[in-house]
Design brief:
- The protein has about 350 residues and is of the alpha/beta class.
- It folds into two domains: about 5-170 and about 345-360, Rossmann fold, CATH 3.40.50.2000; about 185-345, Rossmann fold (3-Layer(aba) Sandwich).
- It has helices at about 15-30, 70-85, 95-105, 120-125, 130-135, 150-155, 195-210, 225-235, 255-260, 275-280, 295-300, 315-325, 325-340, 345-360; strands spanning about 5-10, 35-40, 55-60, 90-95, 110-115, 140-145, 165, 185-190, 215-220, 240-245, 260-265, 285-290, 305-310.
- The strands form two sheets. The protein has a seven-stranded parallel sheet, sandwiched between helices. It has a six-stranded parallel sheet with strand order 10-9-8-11-12-13, sandwiched between helices.
- Strand 4 (about 90-95), helix 3 (about 95-105) and strand 5 (about 110-115) form a beta-alpha-beta unit.
- Helix 10 (about 275-280) crosses helix 13 (about 325-340).
């Protein structure tokens, strides 16, 4: 089997890139690959994703992400060079534009470079990411995006000749599904501005005016926006119905989905948000803003959930209220959602990565 190195800016922060990296690393290690996860920097608050990893983990710098002095740059190259010499022939999966620009010229010939981009095309266009992807990813063996739509857009508009699409995997597949009879809307993610939980609270408050008593919005996560969101819930008249749950351990998330009836995603931008897939695997339908090809690949509007135009809170409110009002619709869409995300099961995504490795090795 091949060596596979996953490289991140930091590999242990609580975040989507890191979670996917460790999930893929453990899965590929279980298939016999020699897998290494490399964090170029130490995480400020490290999070353990895998209790008994079958792969090796390396941290190059003891300091968090930031600028490097010439001395630290030389140290980085020396440490990476030593690691690269330990690895057999295989693949270097570079998880972001920053990692690609930093490592692509340092990799030896026996490690074939593959670039990942975990955001959407739309998000890239609004930031420096697009320029970096266009400049550097075409020089790699493959450029991997989260959806066929995103891969096509980058191919056409960033003129990349080497695009490939592989979705993020669902780490587990539950044996049970939610009953959907409870009156609980779930919002899952960091309490940060980009998640726009203020819009979700506004939509939930308005939806409650048409759905009657008993519904609650449970927000699962921590972040700097906590107090502002508490004040917003109070201003919307739903302070008693919005429950701030804090961080829920990964082992406890299945129980949360089983207790939920609707998953609501109000983010300003997303790549391929796993919370939609996790909810769907438990038979829970979603309401989301239509912000990326990744979101559209998980939520088929009117079939597995409902989509609202980006930032259109009234439309989001109508969609949310519609599912809150009808257990029949929740069950119809929830069953379809679970069937749809079978394609995102870990074993199927690992098959796609191994097919990519075979393609690159030809």
């Amino acid at each position: 089997m091949s060596s596979v190195m996953f490289a991140c800016m930091d590999a242990d922060t609580l975040g989507g890139i890191q979670r996917v990296t460790h999930t893929l690393a453990q899965g590929l290690a279980g298939r016999g690959h020699d897998v290494h996860v490399v964090g170029l920097h130490r995480a400020e608050n490290p999070f353990r994703y895998v209790e008994q990893p079958g792969y090796r983990h390396h941290v190059i710098h003891r300091r968090p992400v930031g600028g490097l002095s010439p001395l630290n740059t030389r140290r980085e190259r020396r440490r990476l060079g030593g690691l690269f010499r330990e690895l057999g022939a295989g693949y270097a999966v570079l998880s972001s534009p920053g990692v690609v620009s930093r490592l692509r010229t340092l990799l030896p010939e026996h490690l074939l470079p593959i670039g990942q981009y975990h955001g959407s095309y739309g998000h890239a266009r609004g930031s420096w990411h697009f320029t970096s992807v266009r400049k550097h990813y075409g020089e790699l063996e493959k450029a991997v995006f989260l959806s066929e739509e995103d891969a096509w857009l980058f191919s056409e508009r960033a003129l990349l000749p080497n695009t490939w699409a592989i979705p993020n995997p669902l780490p587990t597949w539950p044996a049970r599904t939610a009953g959907l009879t409870g009156h609980r809307v779930l919002g899952v993610g960091r309490l940060e501005g980009v998640k726009r939980f203020d819009r979700l609270i506004s939509a939930f408050a308005e939806a409650c005016r048409t759905t009657g008593e008993g519904w609650e919005l449970h927000l699962l996560g921590e972040g700097a926006e906590l107090e502002r969101l508490r004040l917003h819930a109070r201003a919307c008249g739903v302070a008693e119905r919005v429950v701030f749950r804090g961080m829920v351990p990964a082992a406890g998330m299945s129980r949360e989905y089983l207790d939920g009836s609707v998953l609501a995603l109000s983010s300003e931008h997303e790549g391929l948000p796993l919370v939609l897939g996790e909810a769907a695997s438990h038979g829970v339908p979603s309401v989301a803003f239509d912000v990326s090809g990744g979101v559209r690949s998980l939520v088929l509007d009117g079939e597995t959930g409902l989509l609202a135009p980006p930032a259109d809170v009234p439309a989001f409110t109508v969609a949310l209220a519609g599912l809150m009002c009808s257990v029949r619709e929740r069950r119809r869409m929830g069953a379809a959602a679970r069937a749809h995300v079978e394609a995102f099961r870990l074993e199927r995504v690992l098959d796609r990565w191994e097919a990519l490795f075979d393609e690159v090795a030809r």
